[in-house]
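Hi everyone,

Forwarding the result from last night's run.
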Amino acid sequence: MKAHVHITLKNGVLDPQGKAVQNALGALGFDGVGNVRQGKYMEIDLDENDPAKARASLEAMCEKLLANTVIENYKIDLEA
């Protein structure tokens, strides 16, 4: 089973990298670009066929290592 994990900063957390990208896009002539927020994306292959068990395992991975849950949110999408 393949998992897609999206990790983003929570609302209200400053995002200097996103701001730098926003400024660079403006400097390159891309007008009309609003707020830019950066994040992380991971693809994880699991040797698990039960979606509930896979999700529970991925949530534990996110809580313990992949995401800093104080300042980041995560979203898990499973692909059979």
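Strands lie at 2-9, 39-45, 72-79.

Cheers,
N.
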